[in-house]
Amino acid sequence: MRSEKITILGAGESGTGAAILAKSKGFDVFVSDYSSIRANYKKMLDARGIPWEEGKHSEDIILSSSLIIKSPGIADSTSIMQKVRKQGIPAISEIEFACRYSQSFMICITGSNGKTTTTSLIYHILKNAGLDVGLAGNIGSSLALQVAESPHSYYVIELSSFQLDNMYDFRANIAVLLNITPDHLDRYDHRMQNYVDSKFRIIRNQTADDMFIFWNDDPIIAGELHKYTFTANLYPFALDKKSNVKGYVNNNQIVIETNNENFNMDTQLLSLTGEHNIYNSLAAAIAAKAVNISDEKIRAALSDFTGVEHRLEKVARVRGVDYINDSKATNVNSCWYALKSIPTKIILILGGTDKGNNYSEIEAIVKEKVHALIFLGVDNSKLHNFFDRKVAIIEDAGSMQEAVDKAYNVAEKGQTVLLSPCCASFDLFKNYEDRGNQFKACVLNL
């Protein structure tokens, strides 16, 4: 047994996976979660003889550790993390720890919006092409758990800014940066540059053998590029062809320019609709070409991909009204894309835990397309302050059932009820999945 003691803070998917990998490598492991630990994770830890605690942090044990692996949901501002920093104990993410024990090819995706769809799409392409590939990060199983017990040759990893913050030596063979819009500013001292810097950590340690794929027309990304010296191969994508762009749309075809040949596909054959999904498909196709997936297999996968749960997910049509679950839209820009993609008048359900949102980004499109607003949250005062008198019908709801009932009452035939909250879910729900699942259950009971 090694003498080094590792404490894992947080016992969710990433924390439990990190603990199992650390145990398998012979470390003295302890898991501490200030909240309650789900039964399935307790069972996984118990089965491997890993001690854990819940509902508290035993500081004497934690602060005697040589390394902390921190779950992404734990902010540096928490009391325990302040003490860890003061003690000088290094703190890293589960992804950073996992990469120390893997030589696999890493395809990593970040961005304020679209990263789950793009990550799932790349994974779908690679898996259907027969590659030995794992799905990890914000979705799928813990990367550390897979490295410990079911390793793959390739990993497709969705990375949040919180995960990137505690990554130092990790190297993405392919880094994808989709976009940057304000999000999670409450975790970044309400300074946008701090959040931007976090997103750009995805290109750390890249070499001349690697690839950086990014949206060429994102104004924030464009404004940051001059700050970096790139050794990786740059693959910008955009809607329109420009001299430096490697992926674009031309005559209703998506086109990817590679060293040897061009990939093309009719946009009408893409399974995902909407302008934002053109970007996601371009990024995914570039990544797939980089690992030598055949054009035929890329086209097949782009045409039969079924999408991501809780992202513009069609639930039902009730009395001529469509109900769409976009619970994963936890920031304002995501909601803007959702509103833009729906051609009908909309009853918009939004609200939750505000992360420093600026609703002016959706003000014009709300005035144009929204028939009614339903605010779903414990404290809706910020929403009222911004939207009152801008939309004729505004209702408050304290539960999903109340929100769906009110939407049903005000919706007219041919309209769409859209859950696209702009906010985190933690005031009324366990997470965005719980929020989306409750929405679907309420709709299906109408």
Please tell me about this protein's structure.
- It is a single chain.
- The protein folds into three domains: 5-92, 3-Layer(aba) Sandwich (Rossmann fold), CATH 3.40.50.720; 96-304, Mur-like, catalytic domain (UDP-N-acetylmuramoyl-L-alanine:D-glutamate ligase, 3-Layer(aba) Sandwich), CATH 3.40.1190; 313-444, Protein-Tyrosine Phosphatase, Chain A.
- Helix content is 35%, strand content 22%.
- It has helices at 13-24, 39-47, 59-62, 79-87, 94-99, 115-128, 143-149, 161-165, 192-199, 219-224, 275-290, 295-304, 332-341, 360-369, 381-387, 400-410, 432-444, and strands at 5-9, 28-33, 52-54, 67-70, 91-92, 105-110, 133-137, 154-158, 174-177, 211-215, 233-237, 247-250, 253-257, 262-266, 313-318, 321-325, 346-350, 370-376, 393-397, 416-419.
- A hairpin with a 4-residue loop joins strand 13 (253-257) and strand 14.
- Helix 6 crosses helix 12 (295-304) and helix 16 (400-410) packs across helix 17 (432-444).
